[in-house]
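User: Okay, second chain of the day. Same drill as before: sequence in, structure tokens out.
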Amino acid sequence: MKSFIRILVVVIILGGFGYTLWHLYDKSQEPPVVFETDKAFRTDIIKKTVATGTISPKKEVAIKPRVSGIIEKVYVQEGQMVKNGDAIAKVKIIPDMVSLNNAKNRVQMAELAVQDAQLNFDRQQKLINQGVIAEAEFQPIRTQLMNVKQELLAAESNLQLIEEGALKDQGSSSNTIIRSTATGMVLEVALKEGNSVIESNTFNEGTTIATIADMGEMIFEGKVDESEVGKIKEGMNLLITIGALEGHNFTARLDHISPKGVEENGAIQFKIKAAVQLKDGIFIRSGYSANADIVLEKRDSVLAIPEALLIFGKHPDSTFVEVETSPQKFEKRTVKLGLSDGIKIEVVSGIDTSDMIKKPM
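Assistant: Same drill. Structure tokens below.
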């Protein structure tokens, strides 16, 4: 009985050892690799670059005052349509004290000069009436009176301009009424009633009260990398995609490429501008962010494969694909390539649509 048990134990141990060996061997046998294949196909290949930018009006005008002062009244609001000459705001003049004092002094001096010239004129008038002096002697005195009266009018007008910003006989052309210099939509009203403004002159561009633009003419303003700018030219067509207007694409014509690049994040960027062709019923707001696809090259109905199927050799011109010669048997075949869009690439020669090409694992 004991011998039987020993034999049984030995058999069990040997059986377990044998099973372990078989299991390890079975695991070491990898299943055969089955490679998937793909075929070349006919398609259009478009090589393009993408420029990011914004949409803005082609004509945008900043309305500035011709006098300094305080905004007394604002007549427009954002989004309102205005015409050239429409009132935008009214400015209350806050005169400069030095200029005001000088103007008052000028008026007083002109008044004294008129009084003096008038007295002299009256004395000489009596003499010429009595025939004491000749008309030729009286003429300069008459002219002097006219000159000082004219100077008084000029001084009074200057004082009125400083105090009120306009002359009484100017009517609606008063400088205190700020008027639109263009026809379009009010994009922004930068100031409120009570805000101070500075006049626009030779030495100061002045305070912007409002911005007016023609929303019927919009342009795309973007930037192109220096590696791509040499491939584009004015007159090219662009496809504009606006993030805020999903499902709507707009075409544009490239009008301007900046001759000077600007460094941004270590790369040189060149500004471009393109006129956008608007669509009826779709309103584009100023400042929308947008992307522009610029077509650099295009091939219609060419033989192509996914770029992932390519094998690159050591030599720059040695490019291969693996073509199936028999089931799961492949050979390398040199191909000549053409245009690529980064996903698929044109194959000029080396394969055709009947060849089965091995996909990478």
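Helices lie at 2-28, 97-129, 135-164, 226-229.

User: Thanks, on to the next one.
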